[in-house]
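Hey,
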Amino acid sequence: MIDEARQQALRGLPSVEELASHAAAAPLLERYPRIQVVEAVRAVLQGARRAIVEGDEVVGGSAPGSGSAADGTAPGSTAEALLARVAALLDEWSRPGLVRVANLSGIVVHTNLGRSALAASAVERVSVVARSYCNLEYDLEAGSRGSRETHVEALLTRLTGAEAAFAVNNNAGAVLLLLMGLAAGREVLVSRGQLVEIGGSFRLPDIMRAGGVRLVEVGTTNRTRVDDYENAITADTALLLRVHTSNYRILGFTEEVELGDLVELGHRRSLLVADDLGSGALNELDAYRGEPTVAAALRTGADVVCFSGDKLLGGPQAGILVGRTGAIDGLRKHPVARALRLDKMSLAALEATLELYQDPERVRREVPTLRYLTRTPAETAALAAALQAAVERRCSDGFILEVEESVARAGGGSMPLMELPSHAVRIRFPEASPPDRAAGVAGLDAALRHAPLPVVGRVAQDSLHLDVIALDEGEVEAVAESVAWAVERLVAGLPGAGASLTAVQSPERAAGPSGTVTAPERAAGVQGAPGGPPSTDR
């Protein structure tokens, strides 16, 4: 039962038309389509009614404009206050969900930040085909229907030595197609030590069940021998699968079967051998630091190799399948292949990226992922110094800026034990008690995530660490602007900052701002922070 005061409050709310026609709504109608303004007005009024009925709205005592939530549940039900909520809601609706982010986390291939940045030539190729028609499935020579796979197949076979190749939407899709196309309804042998879980809690046994195959585990978690495979082979065995544990390593008392031995067994027993490399080291480059490569797996005799396009390769999201013609053609013709196929923009980016691999020196320079992975300590030190200077030119009171050595990671489920020497700009408090320091870190974290260019760093010892290993040289000034923007809001308590600091005036006067709290990687579901598990999506 609603009491009289709440009934009166409900009756006092304006109608949708009254609020949309209010003089204070005129600027909104100039900026947004009327239909969108009316939709927002309706949503705010529904929220206000709900708040009154549920007791969240202060009846009869709200100050005009005191509302703060865009959904209309905060106090304040005057026309001006309601329109302020409408304006906030319209602003929220108009902001893009997918935005550029500066990656200063110390993770190069950061799954939650989009994995690899594309080379400039790949971006340009995407732009060309995105804004026009293209010969996606049209043979310009023959003047008839063509195949979208031809655009990357020749490059992949030339670069890897494979007989045939084609690409699907990601490596999990490639593994699924491989299983469905080569072993549906039959047994697939895998070492227990290779039953990986990839990002988002997707596990290899689950993918195998979805592919309609029967998983047969061989060996133990830490030791598997070739005899374990051979003793498990039956008349129903279709495939020997090796899975590269690209997102973890088992150390100590271990033994695993070399790919060459598995190939010998497979060929002797007339079984196909597939190698899921996951992270996608295409061929022997310094940046891969000993990772098994696609080219080496094919030389060893694997019938099919699959790997990701957006990890160590540095291209777009894709799952790439290369190998023997008979096996690849069978996968290409499988009905599920159509559901997993790449669109024209992904194919354009992949083709442009692969073209760069024809020149080892050029690919190191132009593919951002490879450039970042091969940066020297001298290069990261100079970049960190440039960032420090850029921040100091904009703001310096209330905190201490230092360049320090850092350890970065490859990320993306790649090279989990590899430590990349790097440098970071550390922002810390002078003479501040730990609670004040923690509040400043939390506040700056919130502000940096809402900056014009959002910045993702990492935290250690109540300090913000901006690791520059994956910072593009052209982003230094923009990142410094974001830090200054965040500091301003933190000090003034403006929207976009969490905890505010009101007395940041000098190094002697307390809790100046600091940085990204809890390494957003670990605290906010972002995978792969230094010191935590690397991002593992395949």
